[in-house]
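Ticket #4471: structure output looks truncated?

Reporter: J.K.
Steps to reproduce: submitted the chain below (361 residues) through the standard prediction queue, then opened the result file.
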Amino acid sequence: MNDAAKPESRRITPVILSGGAGTRLWPLSRKARPKQMLALTGAGTMLATTAARVADPDRFAPPIVVAGAEQADEVEQQLAAAGTPAGKLIVEPEGRNTAPAIALAALNAGEDALLLVMPSDHLIGDAEGFLEAVAAAAPLAEAGWLVTFGVKPSRAETGYGYIRQGRQIAPGAHAAERFVEKPDAATAAVYLAEGGYHWNAGIFLFRAGAYLDALAAHAPDIAAGVREAMAKAETTGSRIAPDAHLFGGVRSQSIDHTVMEHAARVAVVPVDMDWSDVGSWQALHEVSARDESGNAVWGEALVLDSANSLVRSDGPLVVAIGVEGVAIVATADAVLVVPLKDAQRMHEAVALLRERRDPRL
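Returned output as attached by the reporter:
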């Protein structure tokens, strides 16, 4: 894509998915204020940073943001304050996962629109490298391919899904041979050594019509349900609210399981863009500024004789002495202490809190 201004119809429309709960970063991230609404690395909120990444009006149309009803007001406020207001804000009455959420955006954008679908809560260190990959992938998407961006793995990571690349279909692009669930450590090591596997970043580029056709082919119930909910949507200014009863009846499923694993023309464009989904306290520690002992520290915290730890307080003073490889996170009403190596177990704590119907979730 060159630097000249594009006609409105040919600019890419960003679709920012902002409906996640972000419970893996509890207690800082809560249902009412998930991680995309937070400034986790001190450089603006993750939502605002995501919108700024695709703010060039020569390349991109105003974004479509899909968010939950509880966050709608704050989404508008954050994007307006950052100077990147949404073109449309689709308000989900309840979350139904990514396949229905993207269908909502695709129906609103129009079948010919080229959609760049992105989570609102990921970090990309090399934004220009990302944009170059998007530009390289655009001709494939225009030709009807469903493009996903695979991140070059830097380690045998067990917390991400993987994409196995197949035959080359264009310079820097391959057919996606298969999608792989989060592997165990031994399998992840094999993937890294073998090559040809990429982390699944959950970022996509395709024509709206191509996605809707694939959804109708592989999940006709979801496609029909979203259409019915949108047919009875209410529009207020830039806000669009699908019918709550009809949308609540739509089956909840991810785009990967619904479409990408089954469609015939799925491409993967590998990209090395310093990416993180910041999906755990360990991941946040890795992307944060650290002192000479490897500690990442925020707020009212005092750290002595400690190493390779994350200590954060948004409430009381926290003093950590002689700890190593630990996350200590304090808010006004909760304290978390967990070894960073066990950070992926947060779902167990969240499940227990959910069983107790704890209001601090």
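Triage note (M.O.): checked the attachment and the full token line is present. Residues 8-276 form a domain with the Spore Coat Polysaccharide Biosynthesis Protein SpsA; Chain A fold (CATH 3.90.550.10).
Status: closed, working as intended.
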